[in-house]
Write a structure and sequence with these properties.
- The protein is an alpha/beta fold.
- It has 9 helices and 9 strands.
- The longest helix has 18 residues.
- Helix 6 packs across helix 8.
- The structure holds guanosine-5'-triphosphate (GTP) and magnesium ion (MG).
- Guanosine-5'-triphosphate (GTP) binds next to helix 1.
Length: 297
């Protein structure tokens, strides 16, 4: 029997959703950092197994959003409640049950999808500390399955894939076998740059930066890709910080992004970065759309 369907990965920021997506797919299609609110879009990852096609949807972390950008991110995540066949609700065991986890559980009450509870980051705690967290969450909601995992080490992932397959409906192969994600190479290149910015900068900068790839040109003969990208910031002062003394910061971001891109695209990369101020873009509907942030993507 061939089964297929859409599996939404949801949870608070920083619990390990994108790490899990990458672990399942076996490629770094979604960026991950130790800072919350890394993911801003829905990112599809397609896993083909012998008797099924599992289509995972990584989503932004659900949190109390205040700015229009954050509200869009949360809407992108909660949108999967309607478009998925199964939800994977991730919590991280080292942090225990967080107030926002309870809010997410409350928002799951009216949906009819099976929800699998994933207790993530079990590599960080002793086994006996996992059970109390499971107990507490089990009292709040009737989960279809509860599986302790480590997205980092891969522990529990084969069991998870098996359980998902069991819950999926019979269905067709929606996407070609060799398709890994719905995201373009341009998107992934922009995200790799954004990951380096998040890792290398501080305070509000990770949250007020948007990267757009302006040009992506492949020279197949030379196995070379030329990429030009613009880093958009929301204030003049942030532009100076991103460029750094004598361009130091921008150079660092570029070098690290290029190294990752060369691995991902298996090609030599020429990367050119520009910084541009787009005043208060995180509050501007038109600019949010221009930078690729809409509920439906
Ligand atoms: N030790 C350990 N760390 C993990 C595990 N899974 C994720 N992490 C780390 O947790 C941090 C957050 O991971 P992400 O995958 O970016 O989390 P996310 O839920 O996608 O976060 P947002 O996109 O901000 O919502 C990163 O530093 C990961 O390396 C795990 O199983 N074990
Ligand atoms: Mg993420």
């Amino acid at each position: 029997m061939f089964k297929s369907g859409f599996i939404g990965i949801i949870g608070r920021p920083n619990v390990g959703k994108s790490t899990l997506l990458n672990a399942i797919i076996g490629e770094r299609i979604a960026i991950t950092t130790h800072k919350p609110q890394t993911t801003r879009n829905r990112i599809m990852g397609i896993k083909n197994i012998e008797n099924g096609q599992l289509i995972f949807l990584d989503t932004p972390g659900i949190h109390k959003a205040t700015t229009p950008l954050n509200q869009l991110m949360v809407a992108t995540a909660t949108d999967t409640f309607r478009s998925a066949d199964i939800l994977l609700f991730l919590v991280e065991v080292p942090e225990g049950v967080h107030h926002d986890d309870k809010l997410i559980i409350d928002s799951l009450r009216n949906i009819r999808l099976p929800v699998i509870l994933l207790i993530n980051k079990i590599d960080l705690v002793r086994k006996e500390n996992i059970l109390p967290v499971i107990d507490q969450l089990q009292q709040l909601f009737s989960f279809a399955e509860i599986i302790p995992i480590s997205a980092m080490t891969g522990d529990g992932i084969p069991v998870l894939i098996e359980q998902i397959w069991k819950l999926l409906p019979e269905g067709p192969r929606y996407f070609p076998d060799d398709m890994m994600t719905d995201r373009t190479e341009r998107f992934i290149a922009a995200e790799i740059i954004r990951e380096k910015i998040i890792l290398l900068t501080h305070q509000e900068i990770p949250y007020t930066t948007a990267v757009v790839v302006d040009s992506f040109k492949e020279d197949e003969e030379k196995n070379l890709i030329r990429i030009q990208a613009t880093i958009n910031v929301s204030k003049d002062s942030q532009k100076g910080i991103l460029i750094g003394k004598k361009g130091d910061m921008l150079k660092k971001i570029g070098t690290r992004a290029r190294t990752d891109m060369e691995k991902f695209f298996a090609a030599k990369i020429y990367l050119e970065l520009f910084v541009r101020v787009r005043k208060d873009w995180t509050h501007d509907t038109r600019m949010l759309k221009e930078f690729g942030y809409t509920e439906k993507t």
